[in-house]
Amino acid sequence: MRVRFEQVTKRFGGQVAVREIDLDVGPGEFLVLLGPSGCGKTTLLRLLAGLEQVDEGRIWIGDRVVNDVAPAARDVAMVFQNYALYPHFTVFDNIAFPLRVRGTPAGELSRRVRDAAARLDLGTLLDHKPAELSGGQQQRVALARAIVRSPHVYLMDEPLSNLDAQLRVRTRAELKRLQQELGTTTIYVTHDQSEAMTLGDRVAVMRDASCWSSPSRMTATRSESESASS
Fold first, then answer.
1. CATH placement of domain 3-75+153-229
2. How would you classify the pairing of strands 153-157 and 76-79?
3. Which residue, 35, 37, 62, 225, shows the most beta carbons closer than 10 Å to its own?
4. 13-32 pLDDT per residue, tens
5. CA–CA separation, 8 vs 19, rounded Å?
């Protein structure tokens, strides 16, 4: 699904978070937003998800403007930095949660949860609770909960930042493989340049670390994933 930002601006009081962002993300593309903390990357994801309201400009998902569309109706799935798992739910119930909210029939729900779990090697952990899992396993549960919905767009806000260096490198490869298999448009936020160049089909750079007092602007460049990973 194609995603477009047209002259998108967001303010919090008198502070400008993002200004006049123009960005076109092609269907099935893996686009990485790269920049330092505080430059507006997460704000841009939240605007696309509908968790924040646009002050100026338009956001398109496919052929419709979604500025006034409720978050639940945008058909995007967001993976957060802290995973946001329900501690009293099992792995199965955490993955199944978005399907239960939609009223998915029990048989289809079970099949889709087990398929998503199998993709991420969680099949033997479905009866466990988050506290019994490692950080890497919790991260995979959060990813499974996102992919089980089969949304139009995945939004990922530094989902690997809480993992140790070795596990982060391994999980990058798994994440890239998964996105290529699913073919779903993905927008991924990071401040790690090597991560951006390894994962992204393109990298969009948000400049100005002090963008709360200066307008932030974005440029997109092709990444060379093969060179970055060699």
1. 3.40.50.300
2. parallel
3. 35
4. 888 889 889 999 999 999 99
5. 6
Which pLDDT value is given to residue 208?
A: 59
Q: Coil, strand or helix: which one is 83? A: coil
Instruction: Tally helices (H) and strands (E) across the chain.
Output: 7, 10
- Strands 153-157, 185-190: pairing is parallel
Residue 74's nearest CA partner among 141, 151, 166 is 151
Beta bridge partners of 4: 24, 60
What gap in Å lies between CA 225 and CA 228, rounded to an integer?
5
Taking the CA atoms of 42, 48, 49 and 50 in sequence, report the sign of the dihedral they define: positive
What's the gap between Cα 215 and its chain centre?
Answer: 24
pLDDT of residue 136: 85
**pLDDT tens string 195-213:** 999 999 999 988 752 232 2
Domain segments of the chain as ranges: 3-75+153-229, 87-150
**Between helices 91-101 and 106-119, what is the axis angle to 10°?**
130
